[in-house]
Structure formats: C-alpha cells, structure tokens
Fold this sequence. Notes:
Blueprint: H1 2-13, H2 28-65, H3 72-76, H4 84-95, H5 103-140, H6 147-155, H7 157-190, H8 196-242, H9 247-252, H10 260-277, H11 281-289, H12 293-324, H13 336-339, H14 346-354
Helix pairs in contact: 2-8, 4-8, 4-11, 4-12, 5-10, 5-11, 5-12, 6-7, 8-12, 8-14
Amino acid sequence: MAASLYTRLLTFTFGSRWWWFGQPWLELSTHSVWSTIMSTLDGTLSQVLVYVTIVVFLAIGLYAGRQTGNSKELFLASRRSQKALPLGLNFLATSVGTWILFSLPEVATIAGILGIFAYSIACVFPLMVFAWLGPIIRQKNPEGFSLVSYILKRFGYPLHILYCIIIIVYLGLFLTSEFAGIKSILSLLASIDGPIPVVVIAIVTTIYTAYGGFRASIFTDSIQAALSAIMILIAVIAIGTSVRFDHDKAVDSGLLGPTKLGWQLLYIMPVAVTFSGMYHQGFWQRTFAANDDRTLWQSSIIGSVTTFPVLVLIGVTGLIAVWAGTLTEEQEPYEAFFSLYKVTPPWVLGFTLVL
C-alpha cells in the first residue's frame, strides 16, 4: 500500500453509463427497468459520450487555432496577451489532471484529512512561486517564453541541454501517468477496455495543438477548467447526499486527526511539487503569457483559490469511501473515489467521464 502511494506521488512529482437525471417520483420498478437497460447499453452509450466529448473539444481547439494564423509568436507563446481570469483558469487546468481521482482519495485513506490538506497545499504552492519568480525571469529574458531560453542565455549550452533532457523525461512520465489514468477511468467506470480511446484522445489533442499552438491550448484549457470545476462540485455534492455512514465509525477511523504521514507530506510535497513544476513548460508558457506582473499575480491567486477547494473536495471522497464501507479490503486505496459510484446516481458517472 505504502509502495503504491509512493510510486504514484513520484509519478505526479515528475509531474460508464449515460447520465440519467432520475426523477424522485419514479417508482422503484421503473428504476429497476432503467438500471437493466443501462447495464445492457452501458458500453455503447459510454463510448458515445466519450467520443462526442472528444469531437467537441477538437472543434473548440480548431476554432481557437484560427486566430494563430502564420504567427510564430502566437503559436509558441502569445507573450503578454492574456488577462487574469482566463490565465487563472489555465493554472487550474494545468494543476489538475486524472491523477486527482486516484492519488488524493488514496492519500485520504492513509494519511487522513491532514494528508488531504498537505497534498492540496503542495499543488497550490507552485502557483504562488511562479507569481514571485515569473516577473524576475520575464524581466531578465523579455524575448523568451520559457525558462529554457533563460537558461540558454544565462548559463550556456551545457546546462541548457541538461535542462531540456530533464524536460523530455518529465514530459514522458507526465503523459504516461495521464494516459494511464484515462485508461483506468474508462475501464473502471464504463467498462471500456483497450487503448483505442486513449490513442484517439492523444491524436485529437495533437491535431488541434499542432494547428493552433499555444493559443488553442490556452483556450481549450480555460473551457476545460471552468467545466471541470462545475462538474466536480456537482458530482461531489451528489456523492455527499447519496452516501450514508455512521458518525462513530468516522470518529473511530483515526482519519480526522493528525497523522505522522500527514505531517511528513506537509513539508515533503510542497518542495517536491514546486521543484518539479520548474520543468513543467505549461506553467512557464502561461507565466510569460500574462499581460503584466500584476496580471500574473491575479491569475495565480485565481488559480490557487479555485484549485485548492477542488483538490480538497476530491480528497474528501476517500474519507467518505472508508466511512461508508464502499471501499472493501479487496480493493486498492486508489480505487476509493470510484468505489462510491456503487451508491450514487448514474448521471454522476457521465460527469466523471466528461472530466
């Protein structure tokens, strides 16, 4: 258990059914009929939902990419072009990923509520570091769009090459983690096995990014962040209102008080995540894209204020899974979030798939 948690933390450091808004006045027999239909069409309807979402984001990405034209500047960086709100939403999108549905609930089952807050603080802390460090790097390298160009200018080719190698390794681990997470989610929630959906997602993302560059990426990330925050809030509320557990069991679990691992994560994770963020080019591109230093500070605050509660809410689902008994001894702790779907409305699965 500890080994799997440690592996997942290192991976991040280096970086269902069709929804159904069931009516409360429906009789149990009607719900049973609907459940039977859903179980029969589960795979087909889930794939329709997944692929429709992919097509929608492809269209959005291509639309946003039209503004790039033949401009190398807009394609690579869009320096000093973004306002605080869209940039703040981009920081939210860059800070979260499929890993939050696995790692945060798992940490909750082991390190308790202190572990949740420690992990969430660790993921928000780099945003404030970029708000402080970003203006310094931008001033010293105004013609650049990443730390890559600054290192080349300041330290020369040897360190520049080393930094680029680390970036490639980091990106490889990051993408592997994300795609593995997507595949696991599709398998756990929708019984969609095989690599085809993941390959399609990779191809579609590559197409609109190759067409529109950074402008397409920043536009789609803004929409994704806004939708994700709303859907996560609704899904967590649905879980909270659908799941019941014994208050005494929650108190006796020991997860509400401080734990040794929780205190350790409180000082280990901020350092690990912050320094790994120095190799995340998504953060640096967005740092250089801010209109000015004040905009960068504002966007960092917006990103922090939106990211922190999202992470905490997802982490709390791990506690709920333990208290409600949906996470059995046969399951791994990283399955805590998904175990709650045994007792939640089917439409919540649809929300998670879209995320």
